Structures are given as structure tokens and as C-alpha cells.
Amino acid sequence: MSDCLVVGGGIIGLSLAYELSRRGVSVSLVEQGEWGGQASSAAAGMLAPLKEFTTPGPMLDLGMESLVLYPEWAARLEEFTGGDVQLSLDGLLTVALTEEEVQQLADKYRWQKEAGHAVEWLTNTAQVKEVEPLLTDQVQAAIYSPYEGHINNRMLLRALATACQMQGVKLLSGCVVNGIAVKGGKVVGIETSTGPLRAAQTVISSGAWAGMMLELLGVSVPIRPIRGQIAAVSSVGIPLRTVIFGTTGYITPKKDGKIVIGATEDESGFQRDVTMAGLASILQGTMPYVPALHSAAFLEAWGGLRPATQDGKPLLGPVPGWEGLSIAGGHFRNGILLSPITAKWMADFVEKGETERLSPFLPARFL
């Protein structure tokens, strides 16, 4: 019997288990496959709320709050585990290649600046290429965001799994959930392929599979899988400095000798294979921004299933009508970015019942 049972060992589940265990809560973490083996390991590790969220509102606020937490959160993880998560908050560029894109980008810059965000408007090719010399000569303007960046998501996942183990989290991988246990109208745990598990609180954080988990109780939430395909090329001979976002793709130089490029979005059910069409879309969408990519050595490509919701916001908090059950899911393509703030706020809920800050994201809006 644990204080809390977390179902799903991706970035959200691992982060929540880590945060709860730091607070002295006993946690069991259940994963049907490998730790972070789905969307979390298939991500590019972007930490870019000003790029991801196109209008002011609760999602941008959530992303910015999580970004603020990242430096201390990552440093504590590295110190505790001795691992490196390759956090880089050295800025990124969102670039425009056409007059139409310049106008759209200028509109975005205006509201971001008026809202008080630290962004700079680079108005010509020379200014943009001063930040990133390898950009195409076709670039006309860009928003430079000096405090956003990226992290090595695979290293982060390893560090979180190690930290959970060191802090006494009961880690159960290869454990398939086949039922949710209810007693006296209260959820008391789960039934699994390796036997029953019981806890005072159960949190579903199983990404694209979260909806399937809740269906075991007859609860329907609008979480569906969206496939994202991503590739990596070698950075040898391509000394890219800065993350580049364009309208047709992104380019992310990593500290491990790779440049990660992507990404597609398509409805494929639970099929995560890389397709030739997907790979072609990635290459055609990114090479116009950095001509040097034409000669880059191809390394690998992969796919992951992003948990999307009907309104684009995650589901965070208690499941109405089911005492002892909550959900932390539906982060779509921003699970890595939102993991610190999700862990903090969901731990506050599990530990103290706090839901005020979760208000825009409560599952009750769909139930």
C-alpha cells in the first residue's frame, strides 16, 4: 500500500513521482513498457512557450511558469543523480522567409512585447544572421527569444528514473493495468498483470492511453493520440548555434552531436511508425532554413504519440464522481516543457487537496 499510485511512466508520471517522493510521500509508479518509452522519448525537448502558444491565456501562463522553474529543477536533478540533462536556455529564433510570414510574425511580436515578455524584433537578414550565421539568405525577419531553449529529453528521463529509484519510489515497469479497483465508491488502486496495487490516491498519467485507463470505469475524456515524427542528423561540419523555428519545421542543435529536426502531426491511431511521407515532410520542411543541412549525415528517425485534448489544454486534477482518482494528462507536444509545473501543482493537489491553480485544466470541464 502506497500513499500515491501513479499510472504511466513518461515525463509527467516520472516528474510527479519524483516531486511527491521529495515531499516524503510514498509512491508506486507503474509503466506498461519502458520508462519514457512513448511520447517523452520521442520529443525534441523544446522549452519554448512563446513559440508553442500563439495567444495569451492559461496555457501560455502555465508554460512560462514552468520555464521559470526549469533551471533550479534541472540543477537539483543533476546534483542529486550525478547525471547531465543538457539544459540550454540560450535563446531561439522564430523566423520569416516571406512578406506574409513577416506580417504574421510582427503581429505576434507586438502582443508578446505588450504583455511584457522578453522578445526582440530582428528586422533584416543581417540582424538575424548575426544571431545564427547558418540561416538562409532568404530570411527576412525574426523574433529572438533570449531565455527559451531546450533540454535533452532522453537524458532528463534517465535522470528522473534514477532520482525516483534513489528516493524510494517503487518502480514497476512491464506492468499492464487491466482494472481500476473501487471499494465503497472510492478508487483504492489498480489491478495489474503482476497483481493488485493499492493506494490512498491514484493518478492516471499514461499519456495517449489515459483515456483508455478511465474507460475502465466508464469515464470518457477527450484524449486522443497524434503521431509526431522526428529525425536527427549529425552536427559535424554544421556548427549551428541556435534553435530555429519556421512555419514548416524546427531545427534544434543538441550538445551530444545531433541536430534534431521535425516534426509532423497526423492522426494514426496508436501507430507510431516512421513513414516515408513523414520523413520527406520533415526534410522538406527544415532544409530551406539552413542550407547546410543538405550535406548533413542522417542518423535516425522516430515517432511518438502525443496526447491531444479537445480544447488544447491538459487535464489536471480530480476525476468527478470518483474519490481517490485524478488525472495528469493531455499535454500534447508540451509534456517536457510542462513537467515541472505539472508535478508541483499535482503534488499540491495529492498532498493538500489544492485545486485553485488547476481551475482552467480541471477534468470536470468535460465530465
From TrEMBL:
<dbReference type="GO" id="GO:0043799">
    <property type="term" value="F:glycine oxidase activity"/>
</dbReference>
<dbReference type="InterPro" id="IPR006076">
    <property type="entry name" value="FAD-dep_OxRdtase"/>
</dbReference>
<dbReference type="GO" id="GO:0005737">
    <property type="term" value="C:cytoplasm"/>
</dbReference>
<feature type="domain" description="FAD dependent oxidoreductase">
    <location>
        <begin position="3"/>
        <end position="348"/>
    </location>
</feature>
<dbReference type="GO" id="GO:0050660">
    <property type="term" value="F:flavin adenine dinucleotide binding"/>
</dbReference>
<keyword id="KW-0784">Thiamine biosynthesis</keyword>
<dbReference type="InterPro" id="IPR036188">
    <property type="entry name" value="FAD/NAD-bd_sf"/>
</dbReference>
<dbReference type="InterPro" id="IPR012727">
    <property type="entry name" value="Gly_oxidase_ThiO"/>
</dbReference>
<dbReference type="Pfam" id="PF01266">
    <property type="entry name" value="DAO"/>
</dbReference>
<comment type="pathway">
    <text>Cofactor biosynthesis; thiamine diphosphate biosynthesis.</text>
</comment>
<keyword id="KW-0560">Oxidoreductase</keyword>
<protein>
    <recommendedName>
        <fullName>glycine oxidase</fullName>
        <ecNumber>1.4.3.19</ecNumber>
    </recommendedName>
</protein>
<dbReference type="GO" id="GO:0009228">
    <property type="term" value="P:thiamine biosynthetic process"/>
</dbReference>
<dbReference type="GO" id="GO:0009229">
    <property type="term" value="P:thiamine diphosphate biosynthetic process"/>
</dbReference>
